């Protein structure tokens, strides 16, 4: 996921979760109903990657503008940033259940608006609504599950929410592939997301509020009534006492950092040395998670595959399904090994693999561009009425190849040779007429990438390997580090800052990727991500401590006893 987290989980806890859920279906219904929020989160992340291919086909203005394409993708992230901020306040003021209902309503409205999408700006508006819902759901769903679940299986149920996020991404690719031959293509892809939002809305109407929130609001009887449905009678009194003590401790901890505004609390966090060290490590991990380029893959993987030389929308979507499936596999691997190998080591190994495969992608795209098929004069004049205007007026048109043709400012496409795509082809205008006459002769039409033979499949192999090394480490561990590295009294404010830094970094990457590929080419774009990853690796080695198996108090003491470079232990025992 890209913007979600996994909770520590062991096999015994998962087994206990499975058995207890079957014995008490109420728990399963509660966790599943709230967990749909994670599914929606993942679905929205993945669905736009395939829908964008067909939005470009329907709207000429979008096809010609990388800025419009980036805006359509990124406005959901902007909405999510505000949704997460508003969601935190709504959770406290109105409760978890109402917040989820509002998130579903916004997501449903956004899905309908996108499906109607008569103009690009209407799609963008729908993306903002969906983003608001995603931002709220990303905060509220795991919180609701953790507060309304039995303590002994809480970690398993919250981790299931993380799996539903990656599962939602995988589902989105399946849905994209299913609707490629249906009239309306992208409208169905984006609109069908409203169905699970509607299902969750209906299910949540029959579920109670979080007992913890009710207890904090003084509605003790209601909280106890809900706990009686979750715990057997002989455990109820102990759980009520535990809830009371936990809430009292939480209120006391919050009071210890003052009653001022959120800005005053942020200032206190940054001016407290121990907390500042934790923030540098935590926020650094979140920024690194995004700046290694993961959401360029999740949001644009079909486009990247087309840049590698696969022209067909359907083929690009089918190959993209592999990347999403491996993301699910990687998340499961992370859950199973995180407590065995530790957080820091897993991130370092993951980052080394990311660097290797990003530079591998750089090499593959560069070699493919150097071996781009030439533009043939005879081939191009064969389509005299559709010839690219820039080619006709270029003084050195004889030296043009496919890459030069696609980079033409007026917008041109490459019509490959019918017999061998590596042979000289034609440079035609990329308006619908050029593509239609090319396809009319049963030739392959390229507007994103060029024919590259085996290099395309090598690039795709590098992309698959990149996902496989990213998901178990940098995909999930930064969220776990952020859940462990802050003193308890600062967890809320510090966790909020870390989450916002993740969303903002996500926005910067998703809003700039296509512009970068247009400005410097695909190869150098991946090289840039590779260089940033090298810096991130050094940062993790120097500034991120190991928190495996440590209580919050132990983490705080560890940071107190370490120098500014938190990896360097002091001589104190």
**How many strand elements?**
3
What's the overall average pLDDT, rounded? 83
Total helices: the number is 26
**What is the terminal separation in angstroms?**
39 Å
Task: Provide the β-strand percentage band.
Answer: under 5%
Transmembrane segments: 30-55, 67-89, 101-122, 128-145, 157-179, 185-207, 346-365, 455-481, 493-516, 522-544
Membrane topology: Multi-pass membrane protein
Organism: Papaver atlanticum
GO molecular function, one term: myo-inositol:proton symporter activity
Characterise the protein shown here.
Helix content is 74%, strand content 2%. The chain has 573 residues and is mainly alpha-helical.
Describe what is shown at a glance.
The chain is 74% helix and 2% strand.
Key features of this structure:
573 residues, mainly alpha, three-stranded antiparallel beta sheet, elongated, disordered N terminus, disordered C terminus
Write the layout of secondary structure elements.
Elements: H1 11-23, H2 25-58, H3 60-64, H4 66-94, H5 96-116, H6 120-147, H7 154-178, H8 185-191, H9 194-205, H10 211-216, H11 220-230, H12 233-255, H13 262-271, H14 273-291, H15 294-307, H16 313-341, H17 343-370, H18 377-381, H19 389-393, H20 402-406, E1 412-415, E2 426-429, H21 432-440, E3 445-446, H22 454-470, H23 477-484, H24 491-520, H25 522-543, H26 552-560
Antiparallel strand pairs: 1-2, 1-3
Helix pairs in contact: 1-2, 2-6, 2-7, 2-8, 2-9, 2-15, 4-5, 4-6, 4-24, 5-6, 5-8, 5-9, 6-7, 7-16, 14-23, 14-24, 14-25, 15-16, 16-22, 17-22, 17-23, 17-25, 24-25
Pfam families: Sugar_tr (PF00083)
Protein name: Major facilitator superfamily (MFS) profile domain-containing protein
Domain Major facilitator superfamily (MFS) profile: 30-548
């Amino acid at each position: 996921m890209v913007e979600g987290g996994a909770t520590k989980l062991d096999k015994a806890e998962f087994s206990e979760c499975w058995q207890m859920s079957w014995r008490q279906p109420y728990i399963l219904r509660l966790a599943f109903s709230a967990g749909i929020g994670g599914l929606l989160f993942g679905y929205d992340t993945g669905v736009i990657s395939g829908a964008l291919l067909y939005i470009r086909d329907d709207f000429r203005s979008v096809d010609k503008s990388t800025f419009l394409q980036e805006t359509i993708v990124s406005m959901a992230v902007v909405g999510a940033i505000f949704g997460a901020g508003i969601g935190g306040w709504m959770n406290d003021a109105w409760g978890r259940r109402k917040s989820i209902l509002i998130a579903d309503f916004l997501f449903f409205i956004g899905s309908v608006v996108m499906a109607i999408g008569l103009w690009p700006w209407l799609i963008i508006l729908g993306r903002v609504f969906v983003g608001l819902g995603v931002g709220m759901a990303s905060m509220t769903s795991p919180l609701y599950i953790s507060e309304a679940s039995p303590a002994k299986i809480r970690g398993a149920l919250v981790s299931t929410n993380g799996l539903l996020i990656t599962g939602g991404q995988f589902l989105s690719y399946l849905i994209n592939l299913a609707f490629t031959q249906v009239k309306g293509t992208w409208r169905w892809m984006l609109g069908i997301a409203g169905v699970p939002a509607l299902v969750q809305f209906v299910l949540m109407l029959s579920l109670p509020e979080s007992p913890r929130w009710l207890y904090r609001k003084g509605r003790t009887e209601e909280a106890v009534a809900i706990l009686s449905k979750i715990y057997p009678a002989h455990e109820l009194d102990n759980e009520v006492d535990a809830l009371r003590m936990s809430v009292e401790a939480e209120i006391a901890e919050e009071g210890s950092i003052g009653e001022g505004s959120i800005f005053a609390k942020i200032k206190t966090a940054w001016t407290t040395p121990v907390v500042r060290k934790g923030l540098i490590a935590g926020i650094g991990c979140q920024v690194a998670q995004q700046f290694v380029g993961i959401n360029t893959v999740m949001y644009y993987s079909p486009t990247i595959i087309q840049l590698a030389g696969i022209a067909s929308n359907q083929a690009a979507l089918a190959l993209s399904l592999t990347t999403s499936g491996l993301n699910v596999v990687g998340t499961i691997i992370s859950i199973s090994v995180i407590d065995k190998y530790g957080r820091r080591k897993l991130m370092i190994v993951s980052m080394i693999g990311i660097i290797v495969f990003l530079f591998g992608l750089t090499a593959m795209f560069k070699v493919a561009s150097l071996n781009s098929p030439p533009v043939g004069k005879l081939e191009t004049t064969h389509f005299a009425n559709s010839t690219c205007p820039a080619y006709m007026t270029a003084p050195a048109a004889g030296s043009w190849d496919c890459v030069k043709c696609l980079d033409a400012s007026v917008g041109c496409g490459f019509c490959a040779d019918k017999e061998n795509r590596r042979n000289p082809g034609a440079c035609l205008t990329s308006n619908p007429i050029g593509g239609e006459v090319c396809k009319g002769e049963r030739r392959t039409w390229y507007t994103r990438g060029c024919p590259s033979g085996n290099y395309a499949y090598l690039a795709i192999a590098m992309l698959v390997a990149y996902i496989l090394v990213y998901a178990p480490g940098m995909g999930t561990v930064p969220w776990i580090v952020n859940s462990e590295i802050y003193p308890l009294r600062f967890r809320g404010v510090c966790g909020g800052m870390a989450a916002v830094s993740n969303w903002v970094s996500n926005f910067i990457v998703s809003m700039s990727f296509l512009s970068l590929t247009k400005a410097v080419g695909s190869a150098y774009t991946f090289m840039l991500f590779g260089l940033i990853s090298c810096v991130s690796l050094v940062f993790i080695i120097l500034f991120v401590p190991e928190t495996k198996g440590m209580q919050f108090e132990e983490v705080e003491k560890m940071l107190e006893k370490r120098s500014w470079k938190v990896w360097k232990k002091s001589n104190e025992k």
